[in-house]
């Protein structure tokens, strides 16, 4: 029996290369196509007024960047005016830097080094790359609570710590999350799916992945979902045996 992967794929696009169907993402610019239907506009530097203009002109959805970071109430206002499904946020993130300091207070018998953060995470960046000191997981939760329907995260997943952050975010907010490579457009996305549990990807343009590679990425979702199903079945059978 054929099993669907559950993966959803979209594409970054430019004016000269819009996909024939499906969701596509495009950064705001002076060269947007005349029709904005089926286009999700990434408003990295734009203002609330620009977001309203794009939504009024028919953009399927606008994802706020700097505007939301500078004034989160923008999200709530746009949701109230245009509806939750048409408003989201875009996050450009990098691994949170960890600093170490000598703890001379907790225990009078000895001193120890303590990290600045308790676990790995991602720092949300402004569109110019400046750090905000805002934890990505917390920020996504806050934006969804204000009514945003979607969060697109541009990130470079480079190690197990990043994959663990992905998996935690997916567990908390999975249905609302899309991910896209940031500075490494040709990164291997199979581990993102298999270990990071990601199920929605925005592929770069140009995208050097052929149909075989896309199939390999999607197959990781099937394999991992089946593994989860097997674990759940084993747990249920164990409970029945106990009873």
Model description:
- The radius of gyration is 20 Å and the shape is globular.
- The model is unreliable at 228-235 (pLDDT under 50).
- Helix content is 35%, strand content 24%.
- By secondary structure, the protein is α/β, with parallel strands linked by helices.
- The chain has helices at 48-56, 66-70, 73-82, 136-145, 160-173, 190-194, 211-242; strands spanning 8-12, 24-27, 39-43, 61-64, 87-95, 100-103, 112-115, 122-125, 131-135, 150-155, 177-181, 200-203.
- A hairpin with a 5-residue loop joins β8 and β9 (131-135).
- It is built from 7 helices and 12 strands.
- The protein has a single domain, classed as Aldolase class I (TIM Barrel), CATH 3.20.20.70.
- Strands 1, 2, 3, 4, 5, 8, 9, 10, 11 and 12 form a 10-stranded mixed sheet that branches. A two-stranded antiparallel sheet has the order 6-7.
- The longest helix is centred in the last third of the chain and has 32 residues, at 211-242.
